[in-house]
Structure formats: C-alpha cells, structure tokens
Amino acid sequence: MSNEKKYLTTASGAPVGDNQNSITAGHRGPTLIQDVHLLEKLAHFNRERIPERVVHAKGAGAHGYFKVTNDLSKYTKADFLSEVGKTTPMFIRFSTVAGELGSADTVRDPRGFAVKFYTEEGNYDLVGNNTPVFFIRDAIKFPDFIHTQKRNPKTHRKDVNAIWDFWSLSPESLHQITILHSDRGIPATLRHMNGYGSHTFKWVNANGESVFVKYHFKTVQGIKNLDVDLAAKLAGENADYHLEDLYNSIENGDYPEWKLSVQIMPEEDANTYRFDPFDVTKVWSQKDYPLIEVGRMVLDRNPENYFAEVEQAAFSPGHFVPGIEASPDKMLQGRLFAYSDAHRYRVGANHEALPINRAKTEVNNYQRDGAMRFDGNGGSSVNYEPNSFDGPKETPENNIKPFEVTGFADSVAYDSEDHYTQPGDLFRLMNADERTRLIQNFVDHMQDVEKDEIKLRQISHFYKADPELGTRIAEGLGLSVPETAK
C-alpha cells in the first residue's frame, strides 16, 4: 500500500485548495456562485438519500395561524406584519435532524422548527431549529458534519468516533454541543420547546431603511425536558411519542402556542459589534438587543394526510417576501441554494404547486413542464420574457435593498476564533445539578471514543470554555486535562 499522502479533489479530480471556507466577495461576503466546490458538495449531498429527506427525515406537522400583536412596521414593510391583529395562516413542521424516517422521537438531537407563512405576498418560510446557534458557520462544512451524524460506511452503525473527531476538530461547534448535551437536548414534547430562526436576517421598511434581526419563538406552555433514562425508555416503547403528543393535544383542543419576538440590531452596529453578528455559532446578548414582541403562533388543526401535508411539505430559507431579506451569514447563504435544490430532487421540480406548498396568492411565472406537472402548465400563455403579449412583468420596487461589498474574492474564515466565551457563559449560568447532568451526558457520549487523542482534544476545548467543565469531564473519562489547554 502506498504511503503517499492523499489530497482532496473535486469529483472531476481537481485539487481542492480550501475545504473549510467558502469563497466570498470580500471578507464578509456574500458567497460567490463561482465556488464550484461548494456547489458540488451541496448538490451531491442533497442527492445522497432517496426518497426521504437527507436530514430532518422524521417529523410532525400541524396547521395554525400567526397573529400580529405589536406594530413593527417601522422596521419592515412585510405585509403580514403590517398591523396589529392581522392574521396569517401557517403550517409548521417539527423534526429530529440525524435520524431516519422511522427513528425514535426522544433522542438527544436538535429539533427542526420550520414555519411556512401563507402571506398575501407569497409564502415566507422561516426554517430554524429549537436552538439559537448551530454546529458550524460555513455551509461548505455541512455535508461533512452530517456524514458524522449518519452511519459509518463500513459498519452501517452510528459512529461516536466520527462525531467527536469532527467536533474536536471544529471548535466552533462547542456552543451548540453544550446546548445539545444540556437538559434541553431532549425536549419533553414538541409543545414544550422554543424555536429560533438561528440565522441573522435583514428587515427593510417602506423607506428603504434596514436593520438586522434574529427570531425567537418562546413556548407559552413553558420549557419541559426529559430525563435521559425516561427518554431511552420511551424510545423503546413509543418511538412516535412526540408525534402522538402533538396530534392528541390539537385533537383535544389544547392548542399549542408560541410568542414570537425579535432582536433588532441597527445596520451600522454590524461593523462594530464585539463579534461578527452573522456568525451562527454565537448569540446576540439580549442586554444589547432586547427581545421585542411581534405576535403569537397557534396550532389548531392536524393534517388530514401525513404524506400529502407533512412529508411533501417543502421549506426553504430562500422563500422571502418584500421587507425580509438574507444577511451575509455564510451558513444561511448556502442554505438558500441547498434547501430548494433538495426539494427539486426529492419531491420534484413542481413541488411548489403541491397543495401544502402552494402560495395563497396567484403564481405567475415562465416555468413550464417538468415531471408530475399536474396543473394547467401555463395553458397557451407565452412562456418567455421579455415578450409583447402582456405576460407577467417584474416589479422593480420589490428588488432587494442594495448593499455594499468590498475586498478580494477568497476563501476566508470569520474573524472571531473565540469559540469558548459563550459556551463557558452558558455553563456558568447553570445550577449545580444542571452542570452535573451536562457533564455526565458528555462523559456518557464520549466514553466509547476509541482514540484518547480525540478525547483529549475535545477536553481542551471544554477546559478553555470553563476549567471546571474541562476538568470534571476529563476525570469522568479517566484522563487529565492536557497542559497545552491550561
């Protein structure tokens, strides 16, 4: 066997210069479509499983409505947020991330929190999780990350070595894995957890003024979590425990409710804040940007057919309405492409026309044909533009707000390499019992990792976040904190 070191290549055999940072316009971005390595990774990743979702395969859904309770029209011209009392129909899909379609509900895993608002200006999808941060901050790492959460290609079993090898080599994951291994890592029900947009988004008002926002859905039912032993018991006895609970609560008239609030950051603060506000591995301090109430979301109707409504529901962070736009968040930028691409592959080119995904407004475009086209396919109307036959035309007033980009196109990382302050702060906010459970969860998850090298590398990250955290996890694993971490 040759000892020659292998180098990473594209599918066409070209060497890859940077597999950690996507190519952006300037240091902050946005991401450039010329990054063919990023596009190849995301496009191939979206086609790795058929027919279920690559991630978020197991889910539950419900219909409901969103009602505005606070006038924030000075920040956004989005019509569905335009006046107090305005009500918009919506559909939500909750999900686990890593498991397959038949996996258990009560595993330790983030929960997807995807909301589709059927607004009068088209569908707006807010596709988040039950955590305010994520494991990585650049979409170019997403396929690699999810591979570690799936099955080993040789054993076809979940692989704790791959999980912790990746996390220990990606210290930006520390904040998310601390949340994941805390009490909130296993919600008691889907009704008793918060939801977050996680990413930073841009709001634009009628005067063309913009701010950056983060979304927080706070459960009115209160936060409740499961003990690890009870969660394991339920996984064996009722793998659909969360689906059952959500369905029964709605069927019995006990309608779940969440209050939506946002943090609002003036646009100019983005260049002076103490860390990059577009880094999805970090939260904004609520002391700096307090929560402002927007409205409430109520779920009051179960699906009539799971496949037609929950399984075929297709959400994309790229589904915006006027007044809401993307930010330079690199993880978000990748998702703008990847989600709709996944649906085109998984459900089909015409997935937007399915009843669960169809906009309540009239859809007018020049997209025709494709597999399973089941509507009039545009009839005899013209199928190109520009044209002289009164076809639908663009509306310049709905262009995005222009934003400045500077710098050289390059593969660059975020400025901040401080992956430790926020997870350390989170640990120090916990009481003694919560700390003990967190540490035991980490120890239990890491104890079967075969290489001490991986354990010690991760222990160093824990120690840098908080010496007590690192020391107690090391002791639980029968190891010592590396001197290099102190």
- The total number of structural domains is 2
Shape: globular
The CATH superfamily label of the largest domain reads: Catalase core domain
H/E series, N to C?
EHEEEEHHHEEEHHEEHEHEHHHH
**Topology, number of strands:** 12
The portion of residues assigned to helices is: 25-40%
CATH fold name of the largest domain: Catalase HpII,  Chain A, domain 1
* N→C terminal distance: 40 Å
* CATH architecture tag of the largest domain: Beta Barrel
Number of helices: 12
CATH class of the largest domain: Mainly Beta
Strand content: 15-25%
- What structural class do helix, strand and pairing data support? alpha+beta
Radius of gyration: 23 Å
User: Uncertain spans, ≥5 residues at pLDDT below 50?
Assistant: none
Mean of all residue-level pLDDT scores = 94
- Largest beta sheet, briefly? 10 strands, antiparallel
Pfam families: Catalase, Catalase-rel
GO biological process, one term: response to hydrogen peroxide
Region (Disordered): 1-27
Catalytic activity: 2 H2O2 = O2 + 2 H2O
Explain the overall architecture:
The chain has twelve helices and twelve strands. The longest helix is centred in the last third of the chain and has 17 residues, at 330-346. The model has no long low-confidence stretch (mean pLDDT 94). The strands form two sheets. Strands 2, 3, 4, 5, 6, 7, 8, 9, 10 and 11 form a ten-stranded antiparallel β-sheet that branches. Strands 1-12 form a two-stranded antiparallel ribbon. Helix 1 crosses helix 8, helix 2 packs antiparallel against helix 3 and helix 11 (452-465) packs antiparallel against helix 12 (467-476). The chain has helices at 36-45, 142-149, 160-169, 174-180, 228-237, 241-251, 306-311, 330-346, 421-429, 432-446, 452-465, 467-476; strands at 23-25, 59-68, 87-96, 111-119, 122-129, 195-196, 201-204, 210-219, 257-266, 292-301, 324-326, 409-411. The chain is an alpha+beta fold and 486 residues long. It comes from Aquibacillus halophilus.
